[in-house]
Automatic annotation (TrEMBL):
Protein name from the UniProt record: ROK family protein
Lineage: superkingdom: Bacteria
Origin species: Streptomyces pactum
Signal peptide (residue range): none
Transmembrane segments: none
Amino acid sequence: MTQTRTRLERGRSALGPALALVHTGRAPTRAVLTAELGVTRATAGAVAAELEALGLIQVDPRPGGATGGQGRPSHRLAIAPGGPVVLAAQVHADGFRAALVGLGGRIVATAPGCMTVPADPARVLDAVVEAGAGLLRETGRRCVGAGLAVPSAVAEPEGTALNPLHLAWAAGAPVGALFSRSLAAAGIGFTGFTGNDVNLAALAEHRHGAGRGARHLLCVATGHRGVGGALVLDGRLHTGSSGLALEVGHLTVNPDGPSCHCGNRGCLDIEADPLTFLTVAGHVPGPEGSLLHQARTLLRDSYHEPAVRAAAHQLIDRLGLGLAGLVNILNPDRIILGGLHRDLLRADPERLRARVTERSLWGRSGVVPIMPCVLDHNSLVGAAELAWQPVLDDPLEALTGAEAAATTG
């Protein structure tokens, strides 16, 4: 007993790193965990046992794919299937979605909410939290945090939405504080974390999707309206000095193009988003479904039509020009595309790659992989990553605090 306690005390600082390895799928067995942490097998075993006791992972003693020391079969590690969750939410131009997300980026339950997003952000955030609270009641799962994705640059650490161009919110809306207030009113006793939707999509893809293994990952994506970008450097989001980096939607890709909300002309934000695609294709947006859904459906079902194909080519060319400029500046080792851009890549991958290659120095000297995002609702999963981060940093402290908050609530 004393030996076990001593091993755990030695490995306690490794609890967070160990959980992060299992969370991102990089430690499928105890042998891999031992090697990645650089500790003894006994210490890794004590760490895994503590994470299992906390209800975060499960340890399966049946042999896994890797072996331990001296050829011994290694215990398999996995996320506890009935473990805690976080409440994650995304607000976009066509409404919102709330979800419960477990470790490993697994969406446990989700509830879409279609509504005209009002000028008062508190109203939609109350609806978001009400939907999330309903999911918690239905599932009976333990909640340990909350995160929110919004279509705006978000000032850190205040959680202020600085430029919600495609919503009726005032610039500088205090969405972080309002989200936390809604959580408290619903009896969910956590401070809510808030971030830009594309930043969070990039974080989710880096940990669980198409960005795994990239050191310098560039993500560019459409939302329901507009275009955003994000950069992950050595595993961390690059958000700049105050959270405003990578506003790639406001790169000029057509100097003679239409005026943008930002005051510039021909920005990527209005040259390569779902509404532009529908308009250029001669399709009048209907009342059913979001603009993003309508654009994806038109591209998928009618790409053979000349007007639709021509619209797709125009957006691909504009997007390629923007990506080439970003490649010249950032020199990423991988680019991932989300939203409608993912569908454009799949529709004509050679055209987009050719545009990037011919316009960029690094594209010509060495091919930069361009890949589609693979996670459904990746901004939601990224919002969950914000909420999970305190647990990944210090599982014991975070879960003790969550229990106290739940008791108080």
